[in-house]
Amino acid sequence: xxxxxxxxxxxxxxxxxxxxxxxxxxxxxxxxxxxxxxxxxxxxxxxxxxxxxxxxxxxxxxxxxxxxxxxxxxxxxxxxxxxxxxxxxxxxxxxxxxxxxxxxxxxxxxxxxxxxxxxxxxxxxxxxxxxxxxxxxxxxxxxxxxxxxxxxxxxxxxxxxxxxxxxxxxxxxxxxxxxxxxxxxxxxxxxxxxxxxxxxxxxxxxxxxxxxxxxxxxxxxxxxxxxxxxxxxxxxxxxxxxxxxxxxxxxxxxxxxxxxxxxxxxxxxxxxxxxxxxxxxxxxxxxxxxxxxxxxxxxxxxxxxxxxxxxxxxxxxxxxxxxxxxxxxxxxxxxxxxxxxxxxxxxxxxxxxxxxxxxxxxxxxxxxxxxxxxxxxxxxxxxxxxxxxxxxxxxxxxxxxxxxxxxxxxxxxxxxxxxxxxxxxxxxxxxxxxxxxxxxxxxxxxxxxxxxxxxxxxxxxxxxxxxxxxxxxxxxxxxxxxxxxxxxxxxxxxxxxxxxxxxxxxxxxxxxxxxxxxxxxxxxxxxxxxxxxxxxxxxxxxxxxxxxxxxxxxxxxxxxxxxxxxxxxxxxxxxxxxxxxxxxxxxxxxxxxxxxxxxxxxxxxxxxxxxxxxxxxxxxxxxxxxxxxxxxxxxxxxxxxxxxxxxxxxxxxxxxxxxxxxxxxxxxxxxxxxxxxxxxxxxxxxxxxxxxxx
Length: 694
Ligand code: ADP
Ligand code: MG
Prior knowledge:
Elements: E1 3-4, H1 24-32, H2 38-42, E2 48-50, E3 66-79, E4 85-91, E5 96-101, H3 106-111, E6 117-123, E7 125-127, E8 130-134, E9 137-141, E10 152-154, H4 163-176, H5 185-190, H6 196-204, H7 212-216, H8 221-246, H9 259-266, H10 273-287, E11 293-298, H11 304-317, E12 321-326, H12 329-342, E13 350-353, H13 359-371, E14 376-380, H14 381-387, E15 389-390, E16 393-398, E17 424-429, H15 435-441, E18 446-450, E19 461-466, H16 470-482, E20 486-490, H17 498-515, E21 521-524, H18 530-542, E22 547-550, E23 563-568, H19 576-583, E24 594-599, H20 605-616, H21 620-636, H22 656-672, H23 674-685
Helix pairs in contact: 6-8, 8-22, 8-23, 9-11, 10-11, 20-21, 22-23
Bound molecules: adenosine-5'-diphosphate and magnesium ion.
């Protein structure tokens, strides 16, 4: 069985035919909003509403809220002081109001001519010269022109796509779309749901007496129906994928307890209870003739690697090869070192595909894998997927899977075999995703959780230190290093520019070399060549360098137990999971460890909140929960722009009961009404259904 690992990017969704009439620019803007077909417009629901169903007399209009007024223009003209502006006075019998436009087209000043009638919507403020509206939305009217019959939807939009244009598009889509229910009547009755058509119509155009609170807080029954449908679509899609997975074949890897047993005996530690539990789950999966798709979650330092190594050995015991893929070369290198050490004496050949190898060496390694001589291939994704053909691949291990984001949950295709035969997959992640989120987003994956750390670890002491107290930090680093420990110094993150990031790293390195002439200092950053990186890491690993200046490339996986101190500069710029990952690089040995978060005042409110959370919490799951609150699930999963259907309407914190109902309904539907189930998925996810494939 010849096999090549290959990532297939999800094909872009073909725009619907009725979209063809739109200009490319409009279509692009719609795509930015996640709208690719007319039905997406139906599901593009308002953020809020304007009330233009009621006309206020100017004199009686309430302050501090948008109101609709109407009057005859008594005077209008362009003024030049204090700056150029169009000023227009209107009267309605009850009073006079000023409409003020700081930006306007010449056509507007002609349009808003004295004697004409205008209807304006905006906040009416008491200015120096009486009531005024700045930049109101307005339209020219004739007397007795009817008012809006429904509230006016205000949609999420993007630059270059105005509300009016969007409203027209949505209205057109609503009129043309098939809004028939996809749910069987008994489900609608049983769950007391509103019909789908009524719900979307209501939400796009609510009647004037609709409860604004229920609409905006999304508690109205129409919202409930939409959220239910959304969750149901997601549950159905996941189940369909899961079902499809069971139609595919994978080698059944029996537990022979030969190599695995020998590694267990040779390890210098005993597996924790949690490690044993997840290992049992994985080993059970591997024996099945269908591809395993398991996500192994465990906080930083919980010991996922050894579990992966044991899984690998089970594959090898069955004559199958294993691919180990890591997001960075540093991490791949480390896996290589760890596995080589652990498998010493087991007679298992490991092929190491470093970026730093010469083409000739790479070719030689690839040949060892192709011939089946090497049983394990370790490297970065890029290398393994581009360069290697396996003779008999049984298991793929993807480390630090979260770094790739959900959208890159790679679809591993096996070249030269039938599409129905696939290797097992084990994905590992140290960004623990809260349980509810995991169940919802990864419902097509099985999840194992290592929920305890190996014994004997002393928790890392976290300190928040203002940059003004740098001198104390410097002293502390010096003491630690001279005392025989090692330390990391993490350079400030410069998100905007990689060049600037590099410059900062080099500068930090130079400065620290001057600060600590008595210490051996190393440097790693993302732009270094593979060999250089490997050398810098090896020197730190061996203790030859005492202080390692690093960019966030060391965020994932790096494991040097003798490093007990970490300084993170400009910690206020980093995200929660990044800080947690970085901090997880220390506290890996028995010694007491500390992480110093240097920050620059003044802090923004969010930065303050993040630093506080990281200071107060050590449990990765707890931190992820906070992160979810701060950033929302899309950001947390790194999937905001991915096209992966995230929940837009339902909220997993507040709508948990609906999720349970949707889960049960999904099973019922698939069993009793498969055609409707398919229709429902198509309506909600369209082509996106396929993005979810793993
Ligand atoms: P992570 O889950 O973050 O990838 P690692 O697999 O790198 O964690 O493990 C962290 C450290 O703990 C490693 O040095 C590893 O050898 C060690 N380790 C793993 N399991 C145990 C255990 N049961 N007891 C003691 N040390 C362990
Ligand atoms: Mg790891």
